[in-house]
Amino acid sequence: MTVLKTSMRNFFAHKGRMALSAIAVLLSVAFVCGTLVFTDTMNTTFDNLFKATSSDVTVTAKGSSDTGETTSRTGKPPVMPASVLGEIRTAQGVKAAEGTVFSTSVTVVDADKDKLSPSSGAPTIVGSWNGNDARTMKITSGTAPKGPGQVMVDADTADKHHLRLGDDIGMINVLGTHHARVSGIATFTVTNPGAAIFYLDTKTAQQNLVGRTGVYTNVNVTAAKGVTDEQLKKNVTAALGRGYKVQTAKEVAKANQKNVESILNVMKYAMLGFAGIAFLVGIFLIINTFSMLVAQRTREIGLMRAIGSSRSQVNRSVLVEALLLGVIGSVLGVGAGVGIAVGLMKLMGTMGMHLSTDDLTVAWTTPTVGLLLGVIVTVLAAYLPARRAGKVSPMAALRDAGAPADARAGLVRALIGLVLTGAGVASLYAAATADKAKSGSGMLGLGVVLTLIGFVVIGPLLAGGLVRVLGAVILRIFGPVGRMAERNALRNPRRTGATGAALMIGLALVACLSVVGSSMVASATDQLDKTVGTDFIIGPDNPQNGLIAPQAVKAIKGTPGLTRVTEYRPALADFTTPDGQTLRDTDITAADPTYATDLRKKTVAGNLKDAYLPDSMSVHEKFAKAHGIHLGSKITVAFKDGATAHLTVRAITSSDEVIDQGAKYTSLATLEKYVPADQMPLDALVFATAKDGQQAAAYKALKAALHDGHPELTVRDQTDYKQALKDQIGQLLNMIYGLLALAIIVAILGVVNTLALSVVERTREIGLMRAIGLSRRQLRRMIRLESVVIAVFGALLGLGLGMGWGATAQKLLALEGLKVLEIPWPTIIAVFIGSAFVGLFAALIPAFRAGRMNVLNAIATD
């Protein structure tokens, strides 16, 4: 009880000094809990949606996916004859069955040719209005579509794009463009996670999505009373045979949820990883806080020991304070985490993914995980200071200051840090010189961990040297105030090292990712310059779902000013290689023979142009080595939805290049020979080359030719393509930097707390300096300069370490073809300068408080 009372008294006596540490715990716990609540809510939203939209049993055509996705490489959805509807209705246990047609291979535009697709990455779906959808949607304006000139749109899409009844909409797919006017607007009665949905009547949907009537993509089956979904599935399967895919509502929902979870898990674990970094940074803040509090209470602890308190009691007293800090910070963090989750939901809403707070899901595990993490991390971080407190002897009560530092412990620490750093550097060197990326990546990970821990351990030693250098470069120009700031930073190298290390971690990751991102862009740009021999690359805005319709290819070929146009069609086939292995659903790219000119791909054997001879192909080097393939080898290629060919290998391409890495090529003529016209995959890309001197005119003509009829396609010259690549990587890095900002914020709190406690520790000293003539302005400048030098010290460590990691990672990327190392000096310099401003910002409050001290009271402080 005495220990508890002492801990409570000390905790509340220093509540102001504990506040920043509590905020660090709060932020870290909040990010963890916010991530868990957000992803759980997303799962709940999709679960409810899939349960509500799935019929008891769904029948789809052979070749359709488990998730009900209706895209295919032909641009048309897989279909089944309408006669299956009658067969299904005769099956025992069927109450009702309804055929529908849907497709996601459609681009929808308004009258101004602006796309009406979601910005969240959710699909655009065009299909027939049916009873199953009527269960989850309510027509709130107008009427359902009743003919070829009418279309109904979901309310969220209508609101986002300001659509009204009577507005013209164009639906573009492989069959052409179908125009209709908005006849109705339907509102979801469940949460719509962002899909844009357009409804036609069944006959119009068949004609414009498939090209003929009398077919369906799905049949929704309702069970009679008392019949389970599993029994209904068996009955329907028995009636139809094995030529169709039959799934229960539970199976469809599970397949859809699995697809969604694969995306959500990436987001979830990435965000939790950044929360872990914030926790790591917070550990330094908590260690510094308790170390300084213990040092400031040396006399008090010594007196406690003198009157009979044992080491374990003193130790427990400090740990109880940490426990209180962890509990308070974690409880507040759990509540803040729910707020963060709601904020993320609102943010997703601005991107088009509508999430309702009605689905807000706070599982019991979320606060449990948050509390356990916060408390355990806080108590563990306070263990070393608590142990140090327990070692204070009763004689310390007779001293004015704390016990002298243990020089032997400092030497041991330095040696351990040097060993760890040396081992880390050796691991990084092994990674940089590795022959294979897979083995090198393991050494890279080990090197990152060891060098990071090594720099943390060796921090006090580095602080002693680097702060002196920084003092000579930065602080000496400020005269005596600068020298005092330097001495203050050097007074406790362990504290300076720990404070700088907190900032080091976040900045090291920023520097590493900047180097990797810049190197990837520079390498890809270099390869584009060396290998791409065409002027223009034409493709869909969304390569994952988009394909190029034949009429668009015709429009491209009819554009004036072009000397050649090359089609590029990815196909699927089963490969049987010379070593007897059969590889299912393997990619093979069919292209015009001019592609060998458009892409100057390096070969290790043969000539790529020969791969476009009849019944010929190429493979890449790694594939050839893995399967004993050489020039003249025969590969049996069973094309999907086509015949089987025996193709001769005429070229083996290098596997070192990034563009089309790992591709296997054949000619369009060969593909057309073995795949029926109605199953022919569409072009994914089209390459166009202008006549000499007519590049600008051809670029303008191509854009004009595709603007009205095919706004779903984008024309890029090489400059556009490079910029698009740079923008994609830039967006990813900006998102990562945003997440790392949490760790940097916690590190800034650490600098603030260190300075604040340092000011308290030096109260008497500050009073004496003020008494002998130091002005308030000089005092504040001294504290600001001390803060700046600590922040710059951490930045130097972080940026140097991060650039080393990034350079090593680029060596591994070079094994995959990304051979250019580029250091983004503008970013590195901006971060370095920004760290100085961070130091200035962190010192504002401590400097202000120091300047307000009463001189006489400060001198009288014990």
UniProtKB/TrEMBL annotation:
Q: Which regions span the lipid bilayer?
A: 269-295, 318-344, 364-386, 407-432, 444-477, 498-522, 735-760, 785-805, 825-848
> In the UniProt record, does the keyword Cell membrane occur?
yes
Q: What spans are recorded as compositionally biased (Polar residues)? A: 59-74
| Molecular functions (GO terms) | transmembrane transporter activity
Report any Pfam family annotated for this entry.
Answer: FtsX
Gene Ontology CC terms: plasma membrane
Question: Residues in domain MacB-like periplasmic core?
Answer: 19-238, 499-701
Q: Where is the ABC3 transporter permease C-terminal domain?
A: 274-394, 739-854
Lipid bilayer topology:
Multi-pass membrane protein
Q: Which organism is it from?
A: Streptomyces diastatochromogenes
Region of interest (Disordered), residue spans: 59-79
Give the keywords, sorted. Cell membrane, Membrane, Transmembrane, Transmembrane helix
Q: Which family does it belong to?
A: Belongs to the ABC-4 integral membrane protein family.
Q: What's this protein's name? A: ABC transporter permease
Q: Where in the cell is it found?
A: Cell membrane
